[in-house]
Amino acid sequence: MLLSDEEKKMQAGEYGPGTKRAMDLLVKYGDSFDAKQFAPISYGHISYDFCPEDFWNLMTEGVTKTPHRVTTHPSYSPEVWRKWGLPLADNWADEHERKLKRFLELGWLRTETCAEYLLGIIPRKGDIVSMGGSCMQVANNSLFGARVDRMGILISLAAAVCGRTPLMGLLVPENRFASHMVELEDLDVSNWTIAHYHCLGYYIGDQVPGFKPVAVNGLPPDLAFDFARALVISMPTSGSVTLGHIVGTTPEAPTLEAALRGKKSEHIIRVGKREMRQTWERLNVWDDDAVEHVAFGCPHATIDEIGRIAALVEGKKLKASMLIGASAPVEALARRQGWADIIEKAGGHFEPVCPSITNPFTRPDIAGKNQAKSAATDSARSAHYLATVSHVKVFFGTEEECVKAAISGRWKGEAPRWK
Amino acid sequence: MEIRAHMVSAGKAEGEAVVYKGPFSFLGDLDPANGKVPVPRHQLEGHVLANKVFVFITGKGSSGGDFAAWDAKKNGNAPSAMICLESEPVLSGAVIAAGIPTVDRPEKDVFELIHTGDYVKVDATSGIIEIAEK
What we know:
The structure holds 2 protein chains of 2 kinds. By secondary structure, chain A is an alpha/beta fold. Chain A has 3 domains: 5-173, 2-Layer Sandwich (Aconitase, domain 3), CATH 3.30.499; 177-281, Aconitase, Domain 2 (3-Layer(aba) Sandwich), CATH 3.40.1060; 284-408, Aconitase, domain 3, CATH 3.30.499.10. Chain A is 40% helix and 13% strand. Chain B has one domain (2-131): 3-Layer(bba) Sandwich (Glucose Oxidase, domain 1). Chain B has 4 helices and 8 strands; from the N terminus they run E-E-E-H-E-H-E-H-E-H-E-E. The A-B interface holds A 25, 28-29, 32-33, 50-52, 54-55, 132-134, 137, 149-156, 169, 210-211, 239-240, 357, 388 and B 7-10, 28, 58-67, 70-71, 74, 86-90, 92-94, 96-97.
């Protein structure tokens, strides 16, 4: 790679050992993809809780405040887990607190969410952002037209420390046209909910090899934001898709021609009733109907979602534990609306944690003997990780079915009648 | 026999080959505590990848693949070297950060020439895969 004078200084160790190590790592990484130069980032997004502490210390040693903004992924709240009676919470506390202290010293923002666009941190079209976390990578790329490359948690820390990332992959406009195209066949989407779009995205992610951009054709134009978001964020769960154009909705796909750069796609993925039915079935992994936990907020909940849940649980007492993954600012708004109190009174909980990978109620290494052995969700991403990381039974259905299950402790969800 | 390939992550290592004609993620497909494949119904379920030369197609899945690789390497449970057809950013970042010698884009069909159990030397820095004569 060709380095600027500033980048050479970083490599020479003039900004301390952490920055030097981060730059060395980024140069090796860029070289392996034949990147020619670095691109400055608009902002960086990292995860301190997911980052092994020794790597975290190596990369941040000697780093002072960065000139660019750095934000963070959903994080842990061991002190809250303790209050909720989860017996292994203390095992997580010390490392979390050490890394958080360092994080704040760096002047980085404790956004603690996988949906920063709900906080007003929205990249503009064309902005280059480095980030770990495939859910917001695909959301920022697809829904806002930001330039975000696929990248791991460790590399995203190195990029945040140095304020740059190798110019390659999805940062290069020519690489952003769809190579794969999805055609919906004979599907009436008029009564689809968020869960239906999750299901579609999960199927698509499984069908696209690697992280090739994909264009979804045949949905109503100007699809509601919550539907578009559910569709794209489910793709990198079953696969690695990092850019999903929705024709007529997302900024780089006003038309099919624009998404495909006027070419005909050689790779067409057809989705009909059979594919949707099979995927919905695949996301449901359970035998008896006892529901011990309900997980919402994957990706982190919108204020509208919280309002709908509050309306359904008002005056009720939940039989199953309920976690709503939400950022602190969205939770604060829900509290001002009176909705957070309604949900908590019914027995629900809020936390800016990942309710899928690090759900404290289903993770045996947090909940210990109090582990919930089954969980319901309306998110395909949650369903996937609850089953594969927490190894619990999973019920996948609509938001309303999940709330009803939380109230009754029983699953009455039904597979949709695909039209 | 020698096969030329493209360096992803520098270094030299050798070992017995494990060949898998599918994609791989360090997060989920390898237990960093014992170096085995923990996935039920996976073709390699229960197979040890630790200190083997792992031959596969490409990376996949979560952006947490790199921290999982870091943990596996720290525990001595990472493959000694890796050979894939074409790497991708999470996999490349993982093997470079963790220091696992890795090559991709081999110039010959590694799935035809390398079989599970063969002894393979990988000089990633020079971009050379060497298969020991039986």
